[in-house]
Structure formats: structure tokens, C-alpha cells
Amino acid sequence: MHVTSPVREPLIQGGKTYADVTEDICRHVEGPPTKEWKIAFGLSLIVLAYGSVCLAWTWWEGLGVWGLNKTVGWAWDITNFVWWVGIGHAGTLISAILLLFRQKWRTSINRAAEAMTIFAVLCAASFILMHMGRPWMAYWALPLPNAFGSLWVNFNSPLVWDVFAISTYFSVSLVFWYIGLIPDLATIRDRATSKVSRLMYGTFAMGWDGSAKTWARYEYISLILAGLSTPLVLSVHTIVSMDFATSVIPGWHTTIFPPYFVAGAIFSGFAMVQNLMLITRVVYKLEDYITLEHIETMNKVITLTGSVVGVAYITEFFIAWYSGVEYEYYAFFNRMTGPYWWAYWAMMTCNVISPQLFWSRKLRRSITFTFFISVVVNIGMWFERFVIIVTSLHRDYIPSSWAMFSPTRYDIGDYIFSFGLFFTLFLLFSKYLPVINMAEVKAVIRSTSANLPTKIAGVAKVRQRGTAEPAFDKDKE
Amino acid sequence: MAELSGKYLVGVYDDDDTVLHAVPKLRKAGVKIKEVYSPFPIHGLDEALGHPRTRIGIAAFMFGVTGCCVALTLMIWTMGIDWPMIVGGKDPISIPNYIPITFELTVLFTAFGMVTTFFISNGLGPGAHFHPRFDLRSTDNKFVMAIDLGRNSMSEDEISRALKDSGAEEVNIKQF
Fold first, then answer.
1. Tag placement on chain A: N or C end, fewer CB within 10 Å?
2. Residue A108: is its pLDDT beyond 80?
3. What are the residues whose beta carbons fall under 8 Å from the beta carbon of B144, sequence distance 6 or more?
């Protein structure tokens, strides 16, 4: 019936039973917060507080506190926005595209990757609000007639497309993530000992009982949501790239942008997933679930998308020369040898050379090296957006208005804010929700486990509770 | 899950393959199974139980069509009729420019409509956790089969024996 190909390495180690899966993954949710978690959470709150002060000042005083000038009108704000949106692509890719491709290894990492997606998109959205300068006017981006007549938003503008793309992406990802969470919340609800957690997890589990009919519908809607999210995830960064590509700025006005941005987004997203998972698996002792096999597979995705990005850089450069458009050529020549040469070469080194090192099996199975490269990739991808935005703008058509951009402490502080927000949310998630999808892991364990136990159900260690006690008794409470 | 009443036999199985094979065996023997509860989806179980194929896909398609129409109507009316606007020398109603938002709203309506349908059709929602359950271990590691004695003509002992024969490790009685 279930046949495991001997060629493929098992995805779940340690001969886990169903009860072991529940136990291993619920442990950190049910236990008190560890000291490491408290320290990490405290640190991210401090970072968030510092960032919030900088952000408050940015909004109070106005965008003049940033280092923008008349020539460079977009800089760190849009760089950070695109960077975070890019990071936010891996989660939905893992949960949607890999579901359609029937990649079972996604089951161990999809929950955390999707959470990362949602938090990264929130960080990206915060830069949109910052960039507006007057966030209380944010509703102007919605299709509402203005106060003086019925002038509507311009639906031909990629900036308006972006409003729809990002908000759809965020809300659909959130729904997808929550649907996947419901069965696991029900598991925690049924194990809960305290009244508060039974009420909280019970409320959010919405009465899930795991009946065959519900599961059939669940699988069906998961498949449709995956089918919807697959083009959605590709559309979001395509539309982000159109913010640039539909303009007439040399260096932005290229048709290669959509695929190149999507590949870059997946590239940086996987790097961030690696960073988070490498820490999570050690802290929560989940090495049997997130194995070297998972890390290696993700490294292969990083190499693939990194190569696509590398080819895109070279193609873009070639076309700038081959097209014979001198402005286009100058934009690229200036990137390479102009005053921002260091940013360009940082981008090239981090994004084109570093992922190629993963061709070595030894390096892509090394945890330390993977962590290091993932950080390098994310630095490189930040520089990519910086190079695209700032070096294309800083030398425009009139040499008298050429300028340089240097960040102020508020540019930096607002970037720090997004890190504080991201890590605060991620730490809250990793403490109060199961970081691995228990139901999905249980569903694949038989076909993907090493040393399959003879009795696969296992014995729940905590207790065997009464056979028919309701999860929450209204009359008793 | 709707309100339960009456007397039920609850068979607890230890293995997903066992329960999957037990279902057709029991149905052949004439036992009417109410439902099987499991900690994860078991492929083929809903067909084995004789549940009809879900029609949620039809609902999803309808929501998608609605989203598509809403998006196109919104953009054609605002940009082309209510306040005609020429942007970049294009016709006020230029469908190619409307494709991104039409796509996004189609996806948005489909996803939210389908998920709402899913919640309603399964009776899931805030407050639904007050409903009684047959066995709490069905979200952990056990596979639980519920048989409504009121709807079966066979005697309790006969069904209980059939459950044991099909591989159930425990058979409990549950009265609501």
C-alpha cells in the first residue's frame, strides 16, 4: 500500500508515532515560556520600542526627516517594502505551489513559513504607510470618490494595482494559514488542562471535530486555495515590479522585471525561512521533523532561484548595451562603476556567487554554512532593491541635479522598527501556536518516516482522558 | 457538528489503515456508521462511508465569477462612465489595464466565499466548541467511529462484536 522509495531519504526521523508528533509539537505551546524565549522576546520588544519612537517622529515631523532629496525621491522606504514583500513570498510558495506539486517535505515547514509570510507582508505594508507620510490619508488609495466630485483612483496605475495585490495576498495567505491551523488548534484544545487555554484554543478551533466529511471538504478547499494562491503569489511580485517597469526611468523600464522579481522574491524568502527554521528546530528540539534533508532541499531551491536571478542580472546588463539606448546603458554602467559601485558588487557577490557554493553537497548539508549563506542572501537581496531604486534615480537626465542619498537615523530607525515588529510577531507565534502542522505531518508519516514503529498510533504520554467528556462543558463552567 | 442525542457505540481504532478497511466491512455486514473522526485526513474514507462528493467547488466558482464581475463593473463604471479619464493616451475603458485588479478580486472573492461556505457547511464557528464529542483522542492519535444505535436495526452486542472483529481496540457506549 504505502511504498517508500529507498532512493529518497526519509523526511521524519526517530520512528515517530502519531502520539509522539502531538507530544513533540505541543510541548512548547503547553509549557511555560523558556528563559531563552523571554530574553529573545524582551530584546525584540526593545527593538520595536526604539523603532516605534523613530516611526512616531517620522510621522509627526514629516518625511523631511529621511535622507530623501529632490533627485532621490524613493530610497530606503521602497527598498525595505520590496525586500519584505519578497521575503513574504516563500511561505505561500511552500504551502501552495509545493502542495500542487505533491512535495511532502513541505509539511514540516509550511506552518512557520506561512506565518513568516504574513508577518513579512505586515512589515512591508508598514513601509507603505510610512512612505505615504500622512498615514491617516491611507484610505485615499481605496476606490472612493473624492470629496469634491466623483474623481476615482486611477485603475491604470500599478500603484493602485499594488494596493489590491498586497491586500489580497495578505488576507488570502492569512485565511490559508488559519484553515491549516484549525485542526491543530483542536488538538491543543482537547489536550488543554487549564480553563483559559481551553477557552482560547477552543474558540479559535471553532468546534473542529475531524469527521471524515469535514476532512474531505478541508482537503478540497486546501487544494483550491493552493490553486488560487499559486498565481496569486506570482502576481504580487509581478505587480510590485510593475511599479518600476511601467515608468520611464532608465534601469527600471525593462520587461524582464516581473520574472526577475518573482525569482528574487522566492530566493530571499527561502533564505529567511532557512534562518528562522534553523533556529526554531534547535530551540524547540524539532530536529527529527526539520531534518538535514529539508535544509538541503531548501538550499537547492535557493540555488535554483539564485541562478535565475544571476541570469537576469546578466541579461539586463547585456540588453542595456545591446539595445543601443545610451541612457539605459549609462544607468547600468553607472551602477557598476559609479559612486554606488560597492552596492552593486555587494549585490553581485551575495546573490550570484554565494548560492552557487551550494553545488557542493557538503556545504549545502552544513547547518552553519547554510545559516551564513542565508544571511548573506538576504543582505544581497536588500542591496539589489537599493541598487535598482537609488542608483537608477540618483543620476537623472540633468547632470546639475545629480545627487547622492545618505540615510538619516530615521531611515535606519524605521527599518529597525520593521525588524522589531517581525520578530515580536514571530516569537509570539512560535510560543502560542504549533510551529509544525501536526495533522499534515501525521498524514505523511507512514510513507516518509525512518524506522516506522509497529504500532503507529503510539501511546499518548500525558493521560488517557475519559472517553466522552466534552472539550468544554457550558453547564459546568 | 450538530447537536447529538441518543445512544451511540463508539469504536476506537489504533491505525488509519485498519479503520479504512473496517468501514466497508462493517457496512457490508449491515452496520450503519454515523461518522468516523480522525486526527488527519484519510484518503478514500469519505467514499468508503458513502458521503457524497462535496459541492463546495461549485460555490467557489460562483464566488469567483461574482468577484470578476464586481471588479470589471467597478473599473468600467468609474474609469469609463462616471468620470471618464484618459491615461497615457489610452481609451477610458482599457480592459488590459484592468486585468491585475480583476484577477486579484476574483481570487479574493473566491477564497473568502469558499472558506465562509466551508465554515457554514461544517457547522464550524465561534462557540461551536460547546458541542459534545465522542472521544477526545480523535484529535491526537486515535480513529473514532460513531454508530447511532437508534438508527441501527442490529442489536448492541452484534454491532459491538462486529466492531471488535474489524479491529477496534475499544468499544465504548456513549449516551447524550
1. N
2. yes
3. B10, B11, B12, B13, B36, B37, B38, B134, B135, B137, B138
Average pLDDT, chain A: 88
Whether A471 sits inside 8 A of B75 (CB atoms) is: no
Backbone angles phi, psi at B87, to 5 degrees: -120, 125
Using DSSP's 3-state secondary structure scheme, residue B32 falls into: coil
Q: Tell me, what amino acid is at A457?
A: A
Q: Per the structure block, which three cell numbers stand in for B4?
A: 447529538
Tens of pLDDT, residues A24-40: 889 888 888 989 899 99
Does the predicted interface ipTM exceed a cut of 0.90? yes
Q: Which residues of B touch A216 (CB under 8 A)?
A: 41, 45-46, 51, 54
The pLDDT of residue A5 is 57
Contact state of A468 with B83 under an 8 Å Cβ cutoff = no
Question: Can you give the C-alpha Rg of chain A in angstroms?
Answer: 24
CA B163, B167, B168: angle at the middle one, nearest 5?
60
Select the residue of B42, B114, B132 nearest A221 (Cβ to Cβ). B114
Q: Backbone phi, then psi, for B36, in 5-degree steps?
A: -120, 135
- The reported pLDDT for the residue numbered B3 is 59
Which site among A215, A229, A463 would you substitute to test the B interface, given the most B Cβ atoms closer than 10 Å to its Cβ? Answer: A215
Query: Which site among B77, B136, B145, B163 would you substitute to test the A interface, given the most A Cβ atoms closer than 10 Å to its Cβ?
Result: B136
Identify the CA nearest to A437 among candidates A229, A227, A290: A290
Q: Provide, rounded to the nearest whole percent, the portion of chain A with pLDDT above 90.
A: 61
Give dist(CA A211, CA A86) in Å, integer: 38
CA distances to A3, A46, A53, A54 from A59, rounded to whole Å, are 60, 20, 10, 9
Q: For residues B9 and B18, give the distance between their C-alpha atoms in angstroms, rounded to a whole number.
A: 18
Q: Which of A19, A78, A91 is nearest to A453 (CA)?
A: A19
Q: B155-170: string of b/e by CB count within 10 Å (b at 16+)?
A: eeeebbebbeebbbeb
Per-residue model confidence (pLDDT) at position A404:
93
At which residue does the C-alpha cell 507565534 appear?
A: A429
Q: How many residues are given for chain B?
A: 176
Kindly indicate the confidence band of residue A468, based on its pLDDT and cuts at 50, 70 and 90.
very low
Residue pLDDT, tens place only, A59-77: 999 999 999 999 999 999 9
The reported pTM is: 0.91
Question: Which positions in chain B touch A434 (Cβ < 8 Å)?
Answer: none
Give the contacts of A43 (CB within 8 A, at least 6 positions apart): none
- Give the mean pLDDT of A215-242: 92
Question: Cell numbers 520590496 correspond to what residue?
Answer: A82
Q: Report the run of H or E that residue B173 belongs to, with start and end.
A: strand B170-175
Q: Number of residue pairs across A and B with CB atoms under 8 Å?
A: 236
Sheet of B35-37, strands arranged across? B35-37, B143-148, B7-13, B170-175
Q: Is the pLDDT of residue B29 over 70?
A: yes
Q: Which amino acid is at A245?
A: A
pLDDT tens readout for residues A131-145: 998 898 888 888 887
Where residue B111 falls among pLDDT bands split at 50, 70, 90?
A: very high
For the CA atoms of A185, A188, A194, A198, the dihedral, rounded to the nearest 10 degrees, stands at 30
Q: Helix crossing, A158-191 with A212-245: angle to 10°?
A: 150
Distances (CA, A) of A162 to A205, A264, A292, B174: 33, 18, 37, 55
